[in-house]
Amino acid sequence: MPSRIEDYALIGDCETAALVGRDGSIDWLCWPCFDSDACFAALLGTSDHGRWKIAPDDGAVRISRRYRGETLILETTFETAGGAATLIDFMPPRGEASDIVRLVRGERGAVKFSLELVIRFGSGADIPWVRRISENTMLAVAGPDMLVLRTPVAVRGRGMTSVGEFEVKAGETMPFVLTYQASYLPVPTPVDPLQALADTEAFWTDWSRQNNYAGRHRELVQRALITLKALTYAPTGGIVAAPTTSLPEKLGGWRNWDYRYCWLRDATFTLFSLMNSGYVAEAGAWHAWLMRSVAGSPADLQIMYSIIGSRRLLEWQADWLPGYEGSKPVRFGNAAHRQLQLDVFGELMDTFHQARRANVELGGGTWQLECELLKHLDKICTLPDSGIWERRGPPQHYVFSKAMCWVAYDRGIRSVESYGFEAPVDDWRAMRERIHADICAHGFDAEAGSFVAAYGSPWLDASLLLLPAVGFLPADDPRMVGTVEAIERHLMSDGFVLRHDPREPRPDESHPIEGAFLACTLWLADAHVLAGDLDKARELFHRVASVANDVGLLSEEYDTLARRQTGNFPQALTHIALINTAHNIYEALHPAQKPAVQRTT
Question: What is the mean pLDDT of residues 288-301?
Fold first, then answer.
């Protein structure tokens, strides 16, 4: 059985990532890329679906772990009756091939360890052909995939797995290097594990030095930035929403989605978090991925793309995987990529505008693309859509979607006014006014004193918290004050924000349908910052920070009843929101410190 979601830590090489449990088991790894098939899929099933475990023979009396400084090098210390040893896990920056290096270092006494390597290509389905090619080297091949294990430990086959035992004493280090390569290519040259450790530490330490955040909780903000970097596909600059698929929004439920793709919706949030923290190159790379991915007809615009910009993310179910704690189905691909979600037009236009303000170099043709986007939006902005939460029911006129259409025209107008671009700006101003009036007339419930999720609906939606952040209305407007108060009355669970209204009937499933949405809780904090209530904002920030795991990682949601993290892990949007809220609070406390970009200007 897999560990609790919060018991995992992340290692990666900026092209893929692995989850390592407190028990020393790597239970999830897609190789060679984030969206490749997994070779370790025990996270969504059992050990028979693939894992790599290194742990003390007789268990541990105490387990502690940490990341080494401001790096992605994980150190797990096992204390046993006979001594103590540390398991050091990391993935060096990608060289000739992709490697996982595991070092077992003796700290005191002597500790006996066992190794179990279960390789299952094809996301847990395919058993490889394994053979030894030298005394210390083992090769596993199935179809297009090959893994090479190099270690001085004697490894033998047992029941379609590879096992071994060894002992480390104080001062000794036992190395293991697992390397991926396409099966039709030569076996890659071995890496020196100790040199790889030094190189990896230098890479992450140098990268982390760029962080300019000076406020409270700097260590947590730095960990969030490192996580965001780890979720970046370095060759293209695309940032995946999470390195996992099908970790459930509700334990035992069916709301299980593939997050190993890049959402346009995250674009502006991502730009803010990177630029305001000093990471200009990463912001530029993300923008370059964005431009390549959306190139073409605006009518073909999607809400998400692959890490290389691919568009067909066909969804299918892996029926051989029982799912995380029985949460089925296990999905690969994401059918939501074909939905109409109008808010992405606003996110794109806002991203381009903010990038210009932050002096991010934009390629030629960007303004022409923006004009074409708004020309297409003229034709579709009155249509119902699937909304920010990608509802798979009938389309509706979602208030946040309409507000982001307003943002699209507003940012186009601001770009014309600031940079002198040619555009039908009078038409855009008319559309901006028309959309604003329409939302206030049909998306605001005067009796309830708040905006609602969709036209004609009595229910609320946590995305409404973003209306002041995008500049649709000031935070102190009575309609926004009423909306925030309504959300605090109806969408809170033990101090965290739900994204859906729990009062809304759900005949096909029981409440609660999912955990509290951590990014939404931080959006409420941002709303309080804009309203000038920093005490409430800091309280909400601390609440989210308190449920981060022992190495500072957060998933998409938090189950307030089970007291567990739920949803895909670690989730980029949660960490992005944490970074942005930390900056917002700091800048409110230190108004002389101007951020690189601000959303509402």
Answer: 91
* Cα-based angle 66, 67, 72 (whole degrees, multiple of 5): 150
Which residues, at least 6 apart from 105, have a Cβ–Cβ distance to it below 8 Å? 85, 86, 88, 168, 172, 173
Return the number of other C-beta atoms located less than 10 Å from residue 446's C-beta.
8
Distance of CA 310 to the CA centre of its chain: 19
Going by their DSSP bridges, the two strands 83-90 and 74-80 should be labelled as antiparallel
Strand, coil or helix: what is 492? Answer: strand
> Quick one: CA dihedral 584, 586, 591, 597, positive or negative?
negative
Alpha helix positions (H), 332-444: 343-357, 366-380, 399-419, 425-442
Q: Give the C-alpha distances (Å, rounded to integers) separating 308 from 14, 82, 106, 270.
A: 13, 49, 42, 18
Residue type, 504: E
Report the range of poorest mean pLDDT among 457-466, 503-512, 555-564: 503-512
From CA 554, how far away is CA 597, in angstroms rounded?
Answer: 25
DSSP code for 179: E
Contact predicate 15/230, CB 8 Å: no
What pLDDT shows up at residue 513? Answer: 78
* Cross-strand bridge partners of residue 516: 558
DSSP state of 31: S
Write down the pTM of the prediction.
0.96
Cα gap 308→440, rounded to integer Å? 39
Region of 24 on the Ramachandran plot (φ > 0 left; ψ -120 to 50 alpha; else beta):
left
Q: What's the token pair of residue 68?
A: 């080494």
Establish how many alpha carbons lie within 13 A of residue 62's alpha carbon, considering only the half-sphere containing its beta carbon.
6
